[in-house]
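User: Structure please.
Assistant: Input sequence and predicted structure:
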Amino acid sequence: MKKLNFRTWRTAIFFLVCASLFVSCAKDYADFRVAAPELNMTELSFKDGMKVGDRITFEAQRVTEVDSIYANEWSLNDILVSSENSYEFVAEAPGEYVLSYRAYNIAGEFNYDYDIVVEE
């Protein structure tokens, strides 16, 4: 029987340590689950419409305490205007606008639209 030298033992121990680290790290992330965004939007009413120069802030607020990571997108008439959690709309000209909000991650997405009418 051939005698094992120090280098062989060192290599074997190195692989055992690496394998145990891999297993322990994989176990830590086994409980991590990605949740789809669940949000409440600020509910705003535009009874009389907005006037040119008016400002209003829209905000998305989490419903649950789960720390879900997601991306934000605010689009005004299909043009991306912000990627923050809130957006301030400034009525610069009369007309009808659609403000769309989208929050998304690998687990799902949340969408919400506002119809805004700006009067002279």
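The domain at 39-119 is CATH 2.60.40.10 (Immunoglobulin-like).
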